[in-house]
């Protein structure tokens, strides 16, 4: 059993961030194969980034979420759509802080925090039933 390196804290942070973003993609039903590869691409780039700046490990989920959001905007459209505002133009949630710990999805229109990154599946408005 010798010679097995423990998983580094940075790898753990990357893995956790990847899982959070994937959970939000699944919650919004866009976790298709090419979308998952967008996440992998972002994780690969952010691995390099966080190796240069290990203090940024806590910011990874927010950064990867924004990377994936940008990629989706080019290929599919806005994501994730705001579940809070019932009327008006459909709009995407934004990550706040853009570069900081404890990132959340926020709606700037309503001025509310909707969910933590990874928590979209539990956010209000997911399944309207009336
Ligand atoms: Zn909104």
Structure, described:
With 130 residues, the protein is mainly α. It is 42% helix and 9% strand. The protein contains three helices and three strands; from the N terminus they run H-H-H-E-E-E. The protein has a three-stranded antiparallel beta sheet with strand order 1-2-3, covered by helices on one side. The longest helix has 20 residues, at 33-52. The protein is globular, with a radius of gyration of 16 Å. Mean pLDDT is 88; it is low at 126-130. Bound molecules: zinc ion (ZN).
Please give a quick description of this structure.
The chain contains three helices and three strands. With 130 residues, it is mainly α.
The ordered string of helix (H) and strand (E) elements is: HHHEEE
Mean pLDDT: 88
Task: Classify the secondary structure makeup into a structural class.
Answer: mainly alpha
N/C terminus separation: 57 Å
Oligomerization category of the chains in this entry: single chain
Q: Which range does the strand content fall in? A: 5-15%
Work out the number of β strands.
3
How many structural domains are formed by the residues?
1
General form: globular
Report the helical percentage. Answer: 40-55%
Number of helices: 3
**Cα gyration radius (Å):** 16 Å
Give a short account of the largest sheet: 3 strands, antiparallel
Query: Hetero groups bound?
Result: zinc ion
Strand order of the largest sheet: 1-2-3
Residue stretches low in confidence (pLDDT < 50, at least 5 long) are: 126-130
């Amino acid at each position: 059993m010798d010679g097995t390196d423990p998983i580094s804290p940075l790898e753990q942070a990357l893995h956790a961030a990847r899982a959070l973003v994937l959970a939000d993609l699944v919650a919004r039903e866009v976790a298709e194969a090419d979308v998952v590869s967008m996440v992998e691409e972002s994780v690969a780039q952010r691995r390099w980034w966080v190796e240069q700046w290990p203090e940024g490990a806590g910011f990874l989920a927010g950064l990867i979420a924004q990377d994936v959001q940008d990629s989706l905007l080019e290929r599919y459209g806005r994501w994730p759509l705001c579940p809070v505002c019932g009327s008006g133009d459909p709009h995407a949630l934004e990550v706040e802080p853009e570069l900081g710990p404890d990132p959340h999805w926020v709606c700037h229109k309503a001025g509310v925090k909707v969910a933590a990154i990874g928590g979209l599946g539990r956010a209000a408005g997911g399944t309207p039933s009336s």
